[in-house]
Write a structure and sequence with these properties.
This protein is 29% helix and 26% strand. It contains 3 helices and 7 strands; from the N terminus they run ββββαβββαα. The strands form 3 sheets. It has a 3-stranded antiparallel beta sheet with strand order 1-5-7, with no helix packed on it. A two-stranded antiparallel ribbon has the order 2-3. The termini are far apart. The relative contact order is 0.24.
């Protein structure tokens, strides 16, 4: 595990307390297909908001009443399941909800449309998102 502080972004349900992310017992990422062999040590996120927007659009990440969260801490020693699409794993020592998220979620909606209507992959969507952020 790297001791260098890394900042990453994620979405999660508004019903989940961000302080839960600071509990080492809860710092695991579970794949959406519920394959227990793919559980990874660390909280899933992306290094930039553009990467996160593209990741959400390509992987159809859903959260009831989603909120945007900034996490900081050392990187996990584990390899993320979707590393090629910008996913990172962090062991958060701080976490906060980003209140001003309307533009971000608007961008995600546009990227979802581009992904499904134009067939753009995650890399192309990251480029679009980076230009618009």
């Amino acid at each position: 595990m790297s001791s260098t502080e890394t900042t990453a972004y994620r979405i999660q349900s508004a019903g989940r307390d961000v302080s839960d992310l600071l509990d080492p017992e809860q710092q695991y990422s579970f794949p959406m297909d519920e394959d227990d062999e793919m559980v990874r040590h660390g909280v899933s996120g992306c290094l930039t908001l553009a990467d996160l927007a593209a990741y959400i659009a390509c992987h159809a990440i859903e959260a009831p009443a989603p909120v945007l969260v900034r996490i900081s801490g050392p990187m996990s020693e584990d390899t993320p399941c979707d590393e090629e699409d910008g996913e990172v794993l962090v062991l958060p020592t701080s976490a906060e909800v980003i209140e001003d998220d309307a533009a971000f979620f608007g961008l995600v909606g546009d990227l979802v449309d581009m992904h499904y209507e134009q067939g753009l992959d995650c890399e192309a969507l990251r480029e679009v998102a980076a230009e618009r952020m």
